[in-house]
Amino acid sequence: MSNLILDFAKSFTDERLSASAFAEAYIELWRIERDKKSILNYDEKLSECLSSIFCLADLYNPDIDRDDYELDDEQLRSKVFELIKELK
Questions:
Q1: Cβ atoms within 10 A of the Cβ of 33, count?
Q2: Are 71 and 56 in contact (CB under 8 A)?
Q3: Which tens digit of pLDDT belongs to each residue from 6-17?
Q4: 2 confidence band (pLDDT: 50, 70, 90)
Q5: How far is residue 46's CA from residue 4's CA, in Å, rounded to a whole number?
Q6: Which end of the chain has fewer CB atoms at under 10 Å, N or C?
Q7: 71 strand-pairing partners
Q8: Cα(33)–Cα(37) distance, integer angstroms
Q9: Is 63 left (phi over 0), alpha (psi -120 to 50) or beta?
Q10: Per residue in 37-67, pLDDT tens?
Q11: How many CB atoms lie within 10 A of CB 49?
Q12: What is the C-alpha to C-alpha distance for residues 35 and 75, in angstroms, rounded to an integer?
């Protein structure tokens, strides 16, 4: 499943889905993996990347009145891209 979650994040960076759709779905996919304890079987670097993407998705806020620490669409896409790039 880790490849599915990573591929899903990559499709977001390729602009195949909106930030809102990505954030909501990614959080749910990650929680499913966590609850099944599948995350424990991932390579440490991959696990860290996927968890970091979860945190970024959680910081996403599409509203204009977002707090300074929250991310807009472009910031989320950019930060997810950087995390995935570090895996290579």
A1: 21
A2: yes
A3: 999 999 999 999
A4: low
A5: 12
A6: C
A7: 60
A8: 6
A9: beta
A10: 887 778 889 989 999 999 999 999 999 999 9
A11: 21
A12: 28
